[in-house]
């Protein structure tokens, strides 16, 4: 028995195979288990803060005064970090935010053939058995930019959180990179 993340996992060798390989039973693969929570405001390349407004069904980057920032309402995100069996993909994270007395979590949904960002009322789960529309992989934005990140949607490789100008709003969206080595400033979040 090995103790991992406050839960015991019993692993039993089942048989000895060819080339002296052991085969195991009872292993859990591709599961995300909560590790820690970070509390942060999220800024875009223009130093605007991400603000969630569930009453308007929108999340957008906005200019904020210091006085407006003090309220933290819809701006202070809980970044739920998870352990993963695939560390090369980046750190698995989920986002939630408090707006007034309610908690909302970020997820992606299909709507009219397009994947969109939504904030649903409720709490982020403690554990995911596998794939989830709530998980993003946190990656450094560039190799020389350790304080800026990009967040790749776990269910669609190459699809990242970004902002798009829509009238006077810089709305939070999912955006596809055309090439893996492409640098797109709209995906830069610090």
Question: Any descriptors?
Answer:
190 residues, mainly beta, 8-stranded antiparallel sheet, 4-stranded antiparallel sheet, 16 strands, disordered N terminus
**How many DSSP helices?**
1
Main beta sheet strand tally, sense and closure: 8 strands, antiparallel
User: What is the beta-strand fraction?
Assistant: over 45%
CATH top level label? Mainly Beta
Mean pLDDT: 82
Q: What is the approximate shape?
A: globular
Terminal Cα span: 40 Å
Q: Could you tell me the number of beta strands? A: 16
Strand and helix order: EEEEEEEHEEEEEEEEE
| CATH arch. level architecture | Trefoil
- What name does the CATH topology carry? Trefoil (Acidic Fibroblast Growth Factor, subunit A)
Look at the helices and sheets and give the structural class. mainly beta
Radius of gyration: 19 Å
Number of domains: 1
Keywords: Cytokine, Cytoplasm, Secreted
Pfam families: IL1
Protein name: Interleukin-18
InterPro entries: IL-18 (IPR015529), IL-1_fam (IPR000975), IL1/FGF (IPR008996)
Task: Describe this entry's structure for a reader.
By secondary structure, the chain is mainly β. It has one domain (8-176): Trefoil (Acidic Fibroblast Growth Factor, subunit A). Helix content is 3%, strand content 54%. Strands 5, 8, 9, 10, 11, 12, 13 and 14 form an 8-stranded antiparallel sheet that branches. Strand 6 (49-53) and strand 7 (58-62) form a beta hairpin. Residues 1-9 and 26-30 have low confidence and may be disordered.
């Amino acid at each position: 028995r090995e103790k991992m993340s406050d839960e015991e996992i019993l692993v039993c060798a089942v048989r000895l195979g060819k080339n002296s390989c052991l085969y195991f039973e009872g292993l859990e693969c591709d599961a995300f288990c909560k590790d820690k929570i970070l509390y942060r405001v999220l800024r875009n390349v223009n130093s605007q803060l991400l603000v969630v407004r569930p009453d308007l069904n929108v999340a957008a980057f906005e200019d904020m005064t210091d006085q407006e920032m003090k309220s933290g309402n819809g701006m202070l995100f809980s970044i739920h970090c998870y352990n993963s069996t695939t560390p090369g993909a980046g750190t698995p994270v989920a986002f939630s935010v408090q707006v007034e007395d309610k908690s909302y979590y970020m997820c992606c949904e299909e709507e009219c053939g397009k994947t969109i960002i939504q904030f649903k009322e409720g709490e982020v789960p403690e554990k995911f058995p596998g794939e989830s529309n709530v998980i993003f992989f946190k990656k450094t934005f560039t190799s020389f930019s350790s304080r800026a990140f990009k967040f790749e949607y776990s269910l669609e490789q190459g699809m990242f959180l970004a902002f798009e100008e829509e009238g006077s709003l810089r709305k939070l969206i999912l955006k596809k990179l055309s090439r893996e080595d492409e640098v797109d400033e709209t995906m830069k979040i610090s």
